[in-house]
Amino acid sequence: MNLSPDQIIFWQMSFVKLNATIVFTWVVMMLLVIGSLLITRKLSKDMQRSRWQNLLEVVVITISKQIEEVGLSNPHKYLGFLGSLFLFIATSAICTVIPGFEPPTGSLSSTVALALCVFVAVPMFGIEKQGFRGYLASYTKPTVIMLPFNLISEVSRTLALAVRLFGNMMSGVMILGILLSITPFLFPIVMTLLGLLTGMVQAYIFFILATVYIAAATRVQQPERELAQDGSATTEKQDTKMGSQQ
Amino acid sequence: MLIDWFTVFAQVINFLVLVWLLKRFLYRPILDSIDAREKRIAAEIADTKAKRIEAELQREEFQQKNADFEQQKTTRINKLKDETEAERVRLLEAVRLESQGLRKKLQLALKNEQLNLQVAISQRAREEIFSIARKVLGDLAGTSLEASMTDIFIRRLNTLNDEEIASLQSAISPAINAAAQPLLIRTAFALPTPQCSLIETAIKKILGHDIPIQFSIEPDVISGIELSIKGQKISWSINEYISSLAKRVDELLLSPMDIEQADDTHSTTKTDSHEASA
Fold first, then answer.
1. How far apart are CA B84 and CA B90, in angstroms?
2. Which residues of A touch B31 (CB under 8 A)?
């Protein structure tokens, strides 16, 4: 049994290889892009619209509202990055019901890649909002002594993002594999349903944590102390929520 | 090792491509369509609001117009009522006057008719009485009516009192002196000669002297004898009886007419009082 779809290699030339992770990522990407293309090809701007357009509108608006609720005042700006994160992870989780499909999020390489994207995106959005110096200065808050801890926190939360998603997705697939070999038929179905739920929850957690990090990095209007308190409180809250869900 | 760095790199690229593709094919079109719809809804709401305000204004305007119209209508109706009432009163007055005129005309016509009738009745009565008397006298005594009439006339001459004789004489004397105008005896019929001489004798006896006497026939003097000279007149004729008869007939004819007249007067007064109350 493979722990990761990385280990299923279809083609390789020196270090360049085409493994299941990349292939299934492309499958998910194609699903999303072609689906969007087909639906948005004939969009209606009237009151009457197709069911598929309605579904996409509901999805986009819900994501947008979630971003806004976390505290980002201009959700459309972050919708591209954060929405894509959620849709990619959620679609990967949903596709696990297809026999033979290996979720790309079950690969630590994928989750690390996504976490790295968040790791880079947070300071990018922060610098864009606060300026380079302003953003760097936020690492020394509330005191300079906190600088190393802030840096460690930055790295560790990225690692946590990657490992959390990988662990959950991989475990789901693993449990399914093990149960299939022990008790076929009934348990695998139940576990697949559980896996779907876990996958959706993980997609939501990954998306909401990324949103919170970006929100924390882009808040400048509030007083510093309040900002720090708010930021830590929100993070703690989200972490607690995540922990209880796990 | 679970992390394959090439895969990590490839996935980063894949993810960035996915972000770009979704932005291009999903978020932008969907958000654009939502924005367009929201704008359209907002525009429609604004348009509806504007239309509602306009409708309110128009409604108020129409209400005002309706009120004005109602007021004008009431005023005009009242005016028309007044005018109609005035016209009615005027027409009634005109009709009343006209009817009064007509009634007067009718009364006049009736009166004329009555008079004509009276004349006709008296004429006829005279003729009838004359013929009846003639016949009765002829049948009863074998005497002619003329003879009887002459007798009565002579008797009357004889019964004249002194004053009457004196006035007659005074009337004759200047006449004899001045123009020797004869005494005129008018009858409705030709008197037989014996009767003429009897009358002459009687006159001579009364006056005491001769006087020329002229006999003339006048159909007006129906069945009678009339002596006339210079305004003095002695006569006997059936006319007296006829006048009395005519008077009685008139009384008989007038009595129902009087009642009618009285009724008419009463009804006219009633109508006037009714109009006054209206």
1. 10
2. 60, 76, 79
